[in-house]
Each structure stands twice: as structure tokens, then as C-alpha cells.
Amino acid sequence: MAYLVNIMKGFLIGIxxxxxxxxxxxxxxxxxxxxxxxxxxxxxxxxxxxxTLFLGSLAIGIVIAIVCFSHVVYFAxxxxxxxxxxxxxxxxxxGIPSIYHKMGKDILHLRxxxxxxxxFFFVFFLSKFQITEGQLQTSSPTIMFxxxxxxGLIDAFTMVIPGISGTSVLMIxxxxxxxxxxxxxxxxxxxxxxxxxxxxxxxxxxxxxxLIMVFVMDYLLNYHYRISYCGILGFxxxxxxxxxxxxLSRNYTVTDIVxxxxxxxxxxxxxxxxxx
Length: 276
Prior knowledge:
The chain is mostly helical. The chain has 14 helices and no strands.
């Protein structure tokens, strides 16, 4: 029964992985499986059967969510861009109070402000490397291999770091269309095998990134808890601001704006509930 519950939790975490603005790791913390997952990965060989069943049940739920919802997200972004993006932005905004509360009250120190500032401006530094749709279409196989390796690393890092949405980072870099296109193929094994040039470098980046970040986050959350969450908060707020400015750069009708504002409110409510 416990493993069925873990599959359900994995399913919700998987939805969070797809939606730009939602942190799958933060959802895992909310559902009480984050610390257990970090421990299972860090000490996997101590109890291989137990840790495999636990991590496997979460992974099954995540894969099911990706297969079911990747096409829905693609359709929504294609046909209802403003409302979809404002929903995602609301989801980020709703999770920010939870990150702030995790930092505690005694945070008025220079080092905390420095870490927050570095994380905040790092997002805008990343945006300088944004890849356009034209560059994606004309990329050589070597460049595509490296980009998929990078997507795997980003997905791994943000999968382990709570409060940071990997899909938001990929949107900032202009890599989200490739990522979403890859996820849509997961439900079809023939497409997966025919696209190994895409899945292999992504998988390598994902595995290497998870192995690195599990040890890093285990250390940071045990010995530098507040500073870690200062960085997470800075990253989340700057991602929110960047996505909001990018969304407003297009022209919209009054109907789109009204519907978008309603989605923003709904997104905030859901984001706040997820992180409660």
C-alpha cells in the first residue's frame, strides 16, 4: 500500500517536472519524500532492495505523469500562451513564501544578501546565452548532443534543488521546446529507440547531475541550511521576473489578459497549497 501511495506522490511530482515554474523537489518536500529520496540515493548500497522499491515507485509515478501530461502542456503553450504562462508564473509566486519561511527569521546578515544577490543576477546572466528557435533548427549533431547533455544536467540539478524549476531555467535558455518534444516521445518506445541520439546524452547528463547534486545538497542542507535557501529564493524570484517580462513582450487581446489574470490567481493559490 505504501508503494501505491509513493506512485501517486511520484505522479504529482512528475506533473511538477513538466510545468514551468513548479519545483518537483519542492513538491517532494511537501509530500514528505524528499529527505528519504536523498538518503536512499546517498546510501543506496546500504539496503539495495528497500531503496530500489522506494525510488522505483516514485519513478513509476513520475514517468506516468510525463507520458500523460507532456502533450497537454505542449498544446496549451501553442494555443493559449498567455493564460498558460501566467498560470505557471502564479505557481512560482505561490511557492515563494514557503521558501522564505524555511530560511528562518535571523537572516539580516551581509552574507545572506550576497548569496541572494548572486543567485538573483545569475538568472539574467543565463539569459545572455538564450538560444533562438532558428539556432535550434540549424544546429549540427555535435551541438545538439552537447545541448541535450546540458538539458540533462540542468534537469538533474533542479530536480534535486528544492524551489528551483528546471523547466523555468530551460525556458530562459530557450531549450524548453527540445525538452518538451523529447518528453512527448517517452510514451512511444519506437520513437525513443529512434531518438537515442537525443535520449543518450540527456540520460548521461541526468545521471551524472543527480549523482553530483545528491552529495552537494546533502552537505548544504545539513551544514549551510539558511544560505542554501537564500540562494534558492534569489533564483526563484529572478526566474519569476524574467518569465513575466518575457510573457509581456507579446501582444494580447483584452480577453486574453482577463483570462490570464484569472489563471495567475489560480496558479498562486495552487502553488501556495502545494508548498503548504
